[in-house]
Amino acid sequence: MMITLPNTLRGLALGALCALSAFAHASDPLPSWNEGPTKQAIVKFVQETTDKNSAKYVEPSERIATFDNDGTLWVEQPMYVQLLFALDRVKTLAPQHPEWKGQEPFASLLKGDLKGALAGGDKAILEVVMATHADMTTAEFEKTVKDWLATAKHPKTGKLFTEMVYQPMVELLAYMRANGYKTFIVSGGGIEFMRPWTEKVYGIPPEQVVGSSIKTKFETRNGKPALVRLPEINFIDDKTGKPIGINEHIGRRPVAAFGNSTGDQQMLEWTQAGDGASLMMLVHHDDAVREYSYGPDSKIGTFSDALMQEAKQRGWTVISMKNDWNKIFAYE
Amino acid sequence: MMITLPNTLRGLALGALCALSAFAHASDPLPSWNEGPTKQAIVKFVQETTDKNSAKYVEPSERIATFDNDGTLWVEQPMYVQLLFALDRVKTLAPQHPEWKGQEPFASLLKGDLKGALAGGDKAILEVVMATHADMTTAEFEKTVKDWLATAKHPKTGKLFTEMVYQPMVELLAYMRANGYKTFIVSGGGIEFMRPWTEKVYGIPPEQVVGSSIKTKFETRNGKPALVRLPEINFIDDKTGKPIGINEHIGRRPVAAFGNSTGDQQMLEWTQAGDGASLMMLVHHDDAVREYSYGPDSKIGTFSDALMQEAKQRGWTVISMKNDWNKIFAYE
């Protein structure tokens, strides 16, 4: 007894220490964020808007947070993931389209000349998207996206694209939801390209995804009703389209909005123009070692000087990936 | 002690009885539905789809139920509520539009000749809607709707329109939500006409309302960003538009759908075409005493013979307001 008692006590003390350490860890909902003003701003906002005694209190039903996807929640370099998907689809579909050999932008693409293909600008990109995203049912498209994402790899890291999501943002999504926020994606990307995987990867269900879309048509195929995707733009959820898409899909103004490029400017302006508390943040890609470094000169995810100036003037927080995040991807 | 003990016991017994009675009452989530096959079908469906051991079990995330609004959740006779709103707006706005005196359908409307005004058919209705629903910000429109609904009365009952909602359907919405279902409105009515009040009246938040819409434009007014409503149709959420709207807004197929007219046919077909369990129901207005009685010949809420036949063939339940509901409105 005289020997076992101290051991027991030591064991208890050790257990208590472990529990304390686990508690300290569990009590930080944002472990991938470095301590500093950015993390403080997030925590302060969430604490104030959920504290009934705070002047900044927001009713649970009004706790709407919107997140851009490309460059905000997952990687968008060296090219939008959806564009890589479309390029792969061109190769897969080429045998059924012998005419593509003599038709731009497909001819260049099939020769591996990406630069030549994209020389046609937005029109060329649109042609590639329509040729690869339309003329099939919504169910067929969903399967195509799922199948592709299950094996396609990021050209630089060799990881699955669904692993190329920013761990600090995944923590932020969960933290906001734990505090009664409804999290939405509001992206220029295709709504039906995102919905098959956002619930699993981000915890965001299909009905909380807003994005660009093409038109669909209801018809009967093989005796069953089907929605067929048409080669016709329905909505572009970018720039001024973001507040329009938010109003159409959500019908409430967000109190928090997160983006990373000029495409998100109006979403943040719209959010800030609400009556009560609001939080606006822009992810800045300034970490060439762990991810990418790009800004005003990048065609993908342009973070213009004007946007940086507007962020300063309006008090929007610019998140430095380099300084604010101690981890970028979960696999690190 | 010998006197008080039996009293205490009597008190306890009485308390137990009261508790039991309260429990019996609380245990029926659909008190306004008469016992019978319709109510049984609802309860059986909900029990089976929420029972993990049932072959018909539906994962919580997939529990999507869609409800038409006009004629399914609230009254649509003698005219769609939104049309009554538009007609009232014409009168209010007339002093600002002297040209309306010589311009149909406004001239007839202002003379009180509704029949003459609507002789122009859908085109006339569209003109009235555009003249009264556009050229203002979304915030201004929301206020107009709220102000109107706060005082406008149903022409037959003299009740507020928000009191003209079907109590059995309100109970059904709550019952399904209590069992993990996410309830959505999918209506041919204007999305922004419904959103200002559906949360309060039905417990359905704006982000779960799908409807017809006009286009909006993002611009800066008085130094603040605003969404301005344009006199241009964006989407008609009726007939084949319903599955399209469901796909666009929800991104999942419903497992339960409730409607009341030919405008809901494709929504029910789309719901039934899913892989697992599904429930399709149509409210039939067959109670001229307590509400209205109308069917194939009504221009509003047409329940065609073909729809009745399809319901029988496909096993959809037709809800008889007369026989299945012991109460129609909460104020009865």
UniProtKB/TrEMBL annotation, chains A, B:
<keyword id="KW-0378">Hydrolase</keyword>
<keyword id="KW-0732">Signal</keyword>
<dbReference type="Pfam" id="PF12710">
    <property type="entry name" value="HAD"/>
</dbReference>
<protein>
    <submittedName>
        <fullName>Haloacid dehalogenase-like hydrolase</fullName>
    </submittedName>
</protein>
<dbReference type="InterPro" id="IPR036412">
    <property type="entry name" value="HAD-like_sf"/>
</dbReference>
<dbReference type="GO" id="GO:0016787">
    <property type="term" value="F:hydrolase activity"/>
</dbReference>
<dbReference type="InterPro" id="IPR023214">
    <property type="entry name" value="HAD_sf"/>
</dbReference>
<feature type="signal peptide">
    <location>
        <begin position="1"/>
        <end position="26"/>
    </location>
</feature>
